[in-house]
């Protein structure tokens, strides 16, 4: 039978479940909306949907590396308490173990079969919402690979091995010694965790960001001759690079040299040229608008005060 859009909307309004889940429920129950509600509840989808509006900005970053490839995932929960839950930690690690094959495609990752089950990652996370009792979301994923060399990692504020609050991947292209490269990649990943660079170099900075920097400098130096202003802008961008571009930043392990200089010096120990081909830094909850919690008001509301 054909399921009308209005019927799907009615079920969605009634349960808060996703549109495709509502459509599936109605198809399975031949358009019987009450039976569809029960179908969703049995699947745990209605319960998950009721929690989906809650802000999930806690959770964990998960990391997985294997020689020339590495992957990051961010899985969010509502509270830090859940991040200490062993079931939740195990779930994040298993999702991270699949992430390299998704190649940074979140939809592809969610559609993969969750290890040890016959359900997708997306459906397993929904089931865990019912088990744990909080809104849970797989927010994002990223991967790095190199044809030769190593992808190294670092996890800051580690909750358990390969789980924490800030995760970093660094890809080093080199034909040098694998063990030395892995150590170097970890050191640079620690630097990235600490400094949060915008890009590898100025060429990688978004054009709009550079234009904004130039506009600020130009506004500060109104009235100066064009040739003077040109030098000021060039100097300003160079300073921006030293603060925000990985290769130009002062190396945290030895601030007397830049990261580029540290890489060059490491080539002798590694046994060949080394090039950073990419990096990814995930900080838990960045960019999520968090609510200001009023715990007293929440308790009062729950008590009916």
Would you mind describing this structure in some detail?
This protein is an alpha+beta fold and 305 residues long. Among the domains are: 5-43, Orthogonal Bundle (Helicase, Ruva Protein, domain 3), CATH 1.10.8; 58-169 and 277-283, 2-Layer Sandwich (Tetrahydropterin Synthase, Chain A), CATH 3.30.479. It contains 13 helices and nine strands. The strands form three sheets. A four-stranded antiparallel sheet has the order 3-2-1-5. Strand 1 (58-66) and strand 2 form a beta hairpin. The protein starts with a helix and ends with a helix.
Q: What is the element layout, followed by pairings?
A:
Elements: H1 5-15, H2 19-28, H3 33-43, H4 45-51, E1 58-66, E2 69-77, H5 80-83, H6 86-102, H7 106-111, H8 121-132, E3 137-145, E4 149-156, E5 163-164, E6 166-173, H9 178-195, H10 207-220, H11 226-244, E7 250-251, E8 254-258, H12 259-270, E9 275-283, H13 295-302
Antiparallel strand pairs: 1-2, 1-5, 2-3, 4-6, 6-9, 7-8
Oligomer: single chain
- Give the rounded overall mean pLDDT: 87
Query: Main β-sheet: number of strands, strand sense, barrel status?
Result: 4 strands, antiparallel
Q: Name the CATH class of the domain at 58-169 and 277-283.
A: Alpha Beta
CATH superfamily of the domain at 58-169 and 277-283: Elongation factor Ts, dimerisation domain
CATH architecture of the domain at 58-169 and 277-283: 2-Layer Sandwich
Total number of helices: 13
Q: Tally the beta strands.
A: 9
Which percent range describes the beta-strand content?
A: 15-25%
With strands numbered from the N-terminus, the spatial order across the biggest sheet is 3-2-1-5
Q: Percentage of helical residues? A: 40-55%
Uncertain runs with pLDDT below 50, 5 residues or more?
none
CATH topology of the domain at 58-169 and 277-283: Tetrahydropterin Synthase, Chain A
State the shape.
Answer: globular
Query: What string gives the helices and strands in order?
Result: HHHHEEHHHHEEEEHHHEEHEH
Radius of gyration: 24 Å
């Amino acid at each position: 039978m054909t399921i009308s859009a209005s019927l799907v909307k009615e079920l969605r309004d009634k349960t808060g479940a996703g549109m495709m889940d509502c459509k599936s429920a109605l198809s399975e129950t031949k358009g019987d909306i009450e039976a569809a509600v029960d179908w969703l509840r049995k699947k745990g989808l209605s319960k998950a949907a009721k929690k989906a509006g809650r802000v999930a900005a806690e959770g964990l970053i998960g990391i997985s590396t294997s020689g020339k490839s590495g992957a990051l995932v961010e899985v969010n929960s509502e509270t830090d308490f859940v991040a200490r839950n062993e079931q939740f930690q195990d779930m994040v690690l298993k999702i991270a173990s699949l992430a390299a094959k998704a190649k940074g495609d979140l939809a592809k990752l969610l559609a993969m079969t969750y290890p040890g089950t016959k359900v997708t990652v997306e459906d397993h996370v929904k089931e865990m919402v019912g088990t744990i009792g909080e809104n849970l979301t797989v927010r994002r994923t990223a991967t790095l690979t190199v044809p030769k060399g190593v992808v190294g990692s670092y996890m800051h504020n580690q909750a358990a091995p390969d789980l924490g609050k800030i995760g970093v991947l660094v890809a080093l292209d080199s034909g040098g010694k694998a063990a030395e490269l892995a150590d170097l990649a970890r050191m640079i990943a620690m630097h990235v965790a600490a400094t949060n660079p915008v890009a590898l170099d100025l060429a990688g900075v978004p054009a709009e960001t550079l234009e904004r920097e130039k506009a600020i400098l130009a506004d500060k130096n109104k009235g100066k001759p064009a040739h003077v202003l040109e030098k000021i802008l060039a100097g300003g961008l160079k300073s921006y690079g030293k603060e925000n571009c990985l290769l130009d930043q002062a190396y945290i392990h030895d601030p007397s040299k830049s990261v580029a200089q540290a890489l060059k010096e490491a080539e002798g120990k590694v046994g060949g040229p080394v090039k950073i081909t990419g990096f990814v830094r995930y900080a838990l909850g960045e960019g999520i608008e968090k609510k200001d919690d009023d715990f007293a008001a929440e308790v009062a509301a729950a008590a009916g005060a």
